[in-house]
Write a structure and sequence with these properties.
elongated, binds adenosine-5'-triphosphate, binds magnesium ion, 373 residues
Length: 373
């Protein structure tokens, strides 16, 4: 299908350095992020895309098979081999939530000893892998780091497959309220819970526990909170800066959705939240859009048109298939009108439902053609 009317996305992104793709699960956030990065790089910019759990084949196409915690440039020859013109540079990385968090803690620790103490602490290790929302938070932390290193013209950020895409926007605030909250203060205040836990009677219970199980929970706990308190101020400050980056003039969000009812409803909520939080919306992307069907013909007319080429039986079956497609196309049109109205969006970006999964650079380039027309 040929790319349709201009959607103006290229112009809307022209002065942006950070572009974050948000949307419900499975709508195409990872695909859109990678395709957008490719499209912007193809036109001459140096672009990094931070992906989260890309499907295996796509990861391989982006050169992300091995572990990489920093963006790596995709070999320009790979684009040439797939017939994709590339004027700029495309870099890609896959987010590793735990590693990003460890790096941030390590950087904020006041000295080498506390750094080692925290990272090797059993409780930190459990917490850092288990903390709800740590993926969202570390995605933003990584974004912040890349932004400040200043190596790229544009950074495109994919977001995690959250149950609720709003979790992503709330991640820094949730972390801040945890850091500033009473629960943590109770533990780390002098004479606080940790100190009291070390008191004689409970101390006794813990030391019996340690003898029986071999796990010195109390010692781990007290070391954890003691060493962590040194990092907390830095972490709170960092979280605040990260929250500011989301509101920065150079940052914009793309709301990605399909035309199905639930994702479209989530897109409406997301767009409202963005605007309430004074975060910029760079565009609305309606992915996997169905617009081809009988093209205005009735099923009988289509059969008659196809019959000379295909024969009677095949022509009837193809026309019936196209009619099924029309049902989807009508649903997608209705959904699009609703989205345009609710989001006051005059130039939604439509990406057609392609025949195949998007798993290589040529596939991403096809999506990019629709994104940046
Ligand atoms: N326009 C399209 N046409 C055909 N297939 C598509 C299109 N866009 C995405 N896909 C396919 O849909 C699947 C889901 O896409 P993707 O992984 O980008 O979604 P996601 O929003 O990142 O999902 P998650 O929320 O799980 O992270 C992939 O197999 C991808 O190749
Ligand atoms: Mg994804």
């Amino acid at each position: 299908m040929a790319a349709t009317k201009r959607n103006g996305l290229r112009a809307r992104l022209a002065d942006k350095h950070v572009c974050i793709c948000l949307g419900a699960g499975g709508v195409g956030k990872t695909t859109t992020s990678a395709a957008l990065a490719l499209g912007l790089a193809a036109a001459g910019q140096k672009v990094a895309v931070v992906t989260i759990d890309p499907a295996e084949r796509l990861a391989a196409a982006l050169g992300l098979r091995g572990l990489s915690y920093e963006p790596r440039q995709i070999d320009p020859q790979l684009f040439a081999a797939q017939g994709v013109a590339m004027e700029g540079e495309m870099w890609a990385m896959m987010l590793d939530a735990k590693r990003t968090l460890d790096d941030a803690v390590a950087r904020l620790a006041p000295d080498e000893a506390s750094r080692r103490e925290i990272l090797s602490n059993k409780i930190y290790r459990e917490l850092s892998s288990a903390v709800a929302g740590s993926q969202e938070l570390s995605a933003i932390v990584k974004l912040y780091e890349l932004h400040h290193e200043g190596d790229f013209d544009v950074i495109v950020l994919d977001t995690p497959p959250s149950r609720n895409a709003l979790d992503f926007l709330d991640a820094p605030n949730r972390m801040l309220s945890f850091l500033e909250g009473r629960a943590l203060k109770m533990f780390i205040a002098p004479g606080g819970l940790t100190a009291r836990l070390l008191g004689r009677s409970t101390g006794l219970v813990f030391s019996i526990f340690a003898r029986v199980t071999g796990v010195d929970l109390l010692a781990d706990l007290s070391v954890f909170f003691r060493s962590l308190s040194g990092v907390l101020d830095g972490f709170g400050e960092r979280t605040r800066e990260v929250a500011e980056l989301l509101r920065d003039r150079d940052t914009t969000f793309l709301v990605v959705t399909s035309a199905e009812t639930d994702p479209a409803r989530e897109a409406v909520f997301l767009a409202r939240r963005l605007s309430d939080a004074h975060m910029s919306r760079g565009g609305l992307i309606v992915n996997r859009f169905h617009s081809d069907g009988l093209g205005g013909y009735s099923a009988g007319e289509a059969t008659a048109l196809l019959e000379p080429e295909l024969g009677d039986r095949l022509a009837t079956r193809v026309a019936a298939n196209l009619a099924d497609f029309d049902v989807l196309a009508q649903r997608d049109q209705a959904s699009l009108r609703l989205l345009e109205g609710e989001l006051h969006e005059r130039t939604p970006v439509l990406v057609p439902h392609l025949d195949e999964d998007v798993h290589d650079l040529a596939g991403l380039a096809r999506v990019a053609e629709h994104l940046l027309v």
